[in-house]
């Protein structure tokens, strides 16, 4: 459906359309609609804007990604539908691999997303669907425990937006730094991740790329200072406060 730009909720409706198109193309699971709806509700409560606190978290995330020895960009079906090009741009900025990792695992869907990343110019995508040498993430009793041997299995830092609580917890327990984007400051993922950016992924990725470019010139010590001064739980409490008080 074509949404008139004069519609007061044009942007929100266009994002819904992207998710529906993702389902029609076969890259997004039907369950993705529910996850998107939950995100929409929190975005509404946050005034549909990037808060000062989210901006702070994404600055710290940029520092963390720049300091990582081997960062990986993880992409699921909702993220692929909403902002594949921006994620490719992020991976290029960091010179990092993209690994497709979906909640409702299906080889066909993983393959489809991997091909789309390539079609959209993403050269650094790991072909997880075809690789039989995958390693399993301990603590996850499900095919989504698959980690590519040159991807998440090797990574010290993972950027994994719109993640689910179980896998986030397992990734953190495995000793990896986990950076997520989640509009719900109360979700298990938000509470478990190393750094949580409470914002809409559509706004986050371009800002994160900008921040990485700005921080690239900083020394390791300056980046470490940015990371050490950050308290994820405090940031989440502040985000929750914004929702309770009304954005
Ligand atoms: P958890 O297992 O972490 O408690 P959950 O079960 O509440 O999570 P999921 O369905 O696993 O939720 O994941 C969807 C999450 O992604 C939700 O917390 C939702 O707020 C968030 N989300 C959905 N769309 C977006 C978006 N566009 N930008 C950022 N976050 C989003």
Characterise the protein shown here.
The chain is of the alpha/beta class. The protein is 52% helix and 11% strand. The protein is built from 10 helices and 8 strands. The strands form 2 sheets. The protein has a 6-stranded parallel beta sheet with strand order 3-2-1-6-7-8, with helices on both faces. A two-stranded antiparallel ribbon has the order 4-5. Helix 6 links the parallel strand 6 and strand 7.
Count of helical stretches = 10
Ends distance: 30 Å
Q: Can you tell me the CATH architecture?
A: 3-Layer(aba) Sandwich
Q: Could you tell me the radius of gyration in angstroms?
A: 17 Å
- Strand arrangement within the widest β-sheet reads 3-2-1-6-7-8
What string gives the helices and strands in order? HHHEHEHEEEEHEHEHHH
Mean pLDDT: 94
Oligomer: single chain
Largest sheet: 6 strands, parallel
* The level-1 CATH class: Alpha Beta
Write a brief caption for the model:
By secondary structure, the protein is an alpha/beta fold.
Give me some keywords for this one:
single chain, 247 residues, alpha/beta, Rossmann fold, two-stranded antiparallel ribbon, 8 strands, globular, binds adenosine-5'-triphosphate
Set down the secondary structure blueprint:
Blueprint: H1 10-25, H2 32-45, H3 52-67, E1 71-75, H4 77-94, E2 97-100, H5 107-119, E3 125-126, E4 135-136, E5 146-147, E6 157-159, H6 165-173, E7 177-181, H7 188-192, E8 195-197, H8 201-215, H9 220-228, H10 232-245
Parallel strand pairs: 1-2, 1-6, 2-3, 6-7, 7-8
Antiparallel strand pairs: 4-5
Helix pairs in contact: 1-2, 1-4, 3-8, 3-9, 4-8
Bound molecules: adenosine-5'-triphosphate.
């Amino acid at each position: 459906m074509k949404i008139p730009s004069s519609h007061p909720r044009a942007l929100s409706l266009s994002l819904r359309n992207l998710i529906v198109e993702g389902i029609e193309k076969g890259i997004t699971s039907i369950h993705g609609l529910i996850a998107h709806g939950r995100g929409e509700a929190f975005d509404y409560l946050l005034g549909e804007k990037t808060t000062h606190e989210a901006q702070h978290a994404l600055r710290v995330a940029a520092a963390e990604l720049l300091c990582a020895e081997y960062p990986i960009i993880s992409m699921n079906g909702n993220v692929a539908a909403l902002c594949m090009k921006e994620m490719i741009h992020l991976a290029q900025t960091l010179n990092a691999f993209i690994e497709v990792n979906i909640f409702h695992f299906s080889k066909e869907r993983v393959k489809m997303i991997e091909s789309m990343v390539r079609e959209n110019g993403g050269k650094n995508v790991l072909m997880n669907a075809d690789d039989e040498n995958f390693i399993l993430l301990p603590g996850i009793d499900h095919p989504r425990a698959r980690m590519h041997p040159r991807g998440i299995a090797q990574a010290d830092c993972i950027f994994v937006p719109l993640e689910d609580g179980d896998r986030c917890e397992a990734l953190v327990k495995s000793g990896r730094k986990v950076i997520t984007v989640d509009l719900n400051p109360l979700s298990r993922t938000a509470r478990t991740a190393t750094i949580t950016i409470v914002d809409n992924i559509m706004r986050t990725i371009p800002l994160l790329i900008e921040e990485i470019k700005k921080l690239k010139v900083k020394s390791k010590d300056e980046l470490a200072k940015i990371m050490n001064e950050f308290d994820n739980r405090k940031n989440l409490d502040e985000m929750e406060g914004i929702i309770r008080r009304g954005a």
